[in-house]
Each structure stands twice: as structure tokens, then as C-alpha cells.
Amino acid sequence: MSYASQLLDAYPRTFNVDARVLAATIDALNDCAQACTANADDDLSESNVADLVKCIRLCLDCADICTTTAGVISRQTEYDANVTKPMLEACMAACKSSGDECERHAMMHAHCGVCAQACRRCEQACRELMMAMK
């Protein structure tokens, strides 16, 4: 059981979304942020780093957006959909861009393939949470 699940189970109030979907999204966001950060570092170690500049930039942007989104959706007290929904939309966009770019390099760099998978999983988790919030 993840920390997100444990903390949501211990939350002293009720909230208006399925705790399992919320916890899965928090976990996917954290995993994606870590994968993107590590992938950017891996890219910097490649001999053809100049070809990976866009990938590095998109991964770092995605990591920052995922980290921020995880923080925002982890706070359920006095929840405000006007803040949360745009954060999830931005995260889906960042994950799509980063995942697309990583896929372009996946045949040559295994770490890009791993990162692309994390981005796709996170994009889907954010989408599922958005649907659960409606």
C-alpha cells in the first residue's frame, strides 16, 4: 500500500472522489516526476546530448508540473476544483509532450522508453481522476 493510500485512508474528513483513483494518480505523478528527472540526467550522459536537448527540457518541465500537481491534489481540505482541474490538464499536456518526445528516442535509448511509459501512465491517471471528479 502506497503512502498516498495510507494517508488518504487516515484522512479525518470525507472527500468527493474515489480514494483509490486519487491515490493511484498521486503515485503516478510521483513516479513520472522521478522518471523524468532521471531520464533528463541519463540524457545528459549520452554522447549525442545535443540531439536530446528538447527531450531534456520537456522531461524537466514534466517533472516540475507532476511534482506540483501531486502536491495540489494531495491537499483535500477545502478542495477547489478551479485550481485542481487546470493543474491536471497542464499535467496531461506535459506528460503527452514529454512522452511523445521520449518515444522518439526510445529505440536508441532504453531510459527514454522507460520515461515514455511513466509519462503515458501518468497522463492516463490524471485523465481518470478528472473523469472521477465530474
Describe the model:
It is a single chain. With 134 residues, this protein is an all-alpha fold. The protein has a single domain, classed as Up-down Bundle (Substrate Binding Domain Of Dnak, Chain:A, Domain 2). 78% of the residues lie in helices and 0% in strands. The protein is built from five helices and no strands. The model has no long low-confidence stretch (mean pLDDT 94).
> Biggest sheet, open or closed, and with what strands and sense?
none
Number of helices: 5
Please, what is the oligomeric state? Answer: single chain
Q: C-alpha Rg, in Å?
A: 15 Å
CATH top level class name: Mainly Alpha
Q: Which fold name is given in CATH as the topology?
A: Substrate Binding Domain Of Dnak, Chain:A, Domain 2
What is the number of domains?
1
User: How would you state the average pLDDT, rounded?
Assistant: 94
Unreliable stretches: none
- Tell me the number of strands: 0
N- to C-terminal distance: 26 Å
By CATH, the architecture is named Up-down Bundle
Shape: elongated
What tags apply to this protein structure?
134 residues; 78% helix; 5 helices; elongated; mainly alpha; Substrate Binding Domain Of Dnak, Chain:A, Domain 2
